[in-house]
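Input/output pair, single chain:
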Amino acid sequence: MCAVAAAALTLPLLGAAPAPAPPADARLQQAFADAAAAYGVPRSVLLGVSYLQSRWDAHGGAPSVTGGYGPMHLTDARTALAAAEHHGEGTEDPRGDDARPPLRPGARTPWAGELPARLTTLTRAARLTGLSPERLREDPAANVAGGAALLAQAQRQLGEPPSEDPADWYGAVARFAGADGSASSAYADDVFAVIRAGGERVTDAGQRVALAAHPGLAPDTSTPRRTGARTASAAETECPATVSCEWVPAPYEEFGDGDYGNHDLGNRPASQPIRYIVVHDTEGAWEGVLGMVQDPAYVSWQYSLRSTDGHIAQHVKAEDVAWHAGNWYVNAGSIGLEHEGFLAEPDAWYTEAMYRSSARLVRYLAEKYAIPLDRQHVLGHDTVPGPTSAAVSGMHTDPGPYWDWAHYFELLGRPFEATAGRDAGVVTIRPDYAANRPVFTGCASAGEPCATHGSSAVRLYSDHDEKSPLIKDIGLGSGPTSGVNDLSSRVSTGQQYAVAGRWGDWTAIWYLGQKAWFRNPRKQPTAVPASGRVVTPRKGLDSVPVYGRAYPEKEAYPEGVPPQAVSPLPYTLPKGQKYVAGGRVPGEYYYAVTFDEAAHRVVTGEDLYYEIQFGHRVGFVRAADVTVRTSS
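Output:
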């Protein structure tokens, strides 16, 4: 269709004829109706696609992690090329193993090629509608029109006639996210599942949007197959059948001087349990990230997840140990998930398609390996402890304060709910993500405020007053600040802490050996009461050390395996304080310093540890040092 004709299609939408203005909180609903009529797209299809992209949120015009804007997630990722790649910045050793020389990948360009079509949909929408890119980014109604124009174009390109029946639009929906084969079909399946279920919610801008349920809708799923779209190979993958998944193997290769990469072969869970799943974001574009993980001199993780459609690539078998978390103890017992995101500003949002795909994968892995679905076992990279005192300040902070942990755990089927009475001795952090908007700085430039944004993070103070100093983390050696990457004085949704006091609308918790306060008003609580096990120093001890890894005692190491230091972090757990325990684990060390896996050993000691939620990050205390109690 020529540009003039395409632009003409926008006339009904842009108000050539006056119409009664909808209520202020119904403008987005009306925008969907207007765009559907203007471009001949069924309203339910337009609403379903938008929900899977953004849950109908506009995010105040801020871009997603892949440069997507507005309710339709129209992508304009040109600024993404300035991003730094994830594992090469900072001082963290991704492998986190003292037994080998530090591994710090050199900085490299995450993606230097031409941007793929899935990252330039806003540009195409501008051509189709005649609207400016700026308006498509900033005006939710224009953004919806751009999405409708792209869907209508996809229907024409498939040779399909316009239709009022949503079932006839499966192929166009599959094309919308710009994926191929199984990924496009999985994306379309999710959209039509949303349409069948229906739904309604109030968006981040206060707009009430509803999608009527179409429970009997059965779309024609043959269109993607008829177009000959490439199908990614699912052979070798360990994924649930409900996601699109391909095998892109990371290499296990020697590359000189006895060194090798980029992971270690193992025999998990027979040799050692898989206890954790670690959630990362990539800070790199999909194509560049796949190139990095296939470099034997780089690092590795088990899975990558694509933002635009939730497609998954697996790189390392679950039985093997990937190098991703910066703590060898955690690496040896975890599976790493990297979620695509590569804008230089971390105040970006993640798509619903990626959340859903990630949650399905995590549910599958948790069931297969008996991993508890809680925040002490489904870790953010930002909650992995530094293995030693020297490593604490260099640990990574992704996926950051804008990852929606409450929504993620709802998708996991484990929503964070009250499990005890009002005056319980434990709380679960649970602010309202959309309404909780703490001010962070340093997203685009040092000291400058970040864009206003919903957040999973709650700030901690030294007293029940927002003018009092923020809680200090002595392990970081600087701060505390409001910086987006400063974790000194911050708790996150789903984390649990023992209550240390209450004062009006304020609650105090034990945190990093201190009493830390946060606002928790009854009418809009930021935490809910909970029950659980807590640890406190056993009688006669003034304090106990806190560790970043649960390593065995020296006597447990066999001949030929050098004992690893059981070195405490620069923190202690003082008497009278309590911390929530996530589980008891044995002292364990995976010795793997050679390419030949025959020399690898799993050393298990007699000493036992408890994992605890100590600060923003988890930590470990020796079981012999503490008493465990149930707090209700």
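Residues 46 and 179 are 18 Å apart (CA to CA). The first helix runs from residue 3 to 8.
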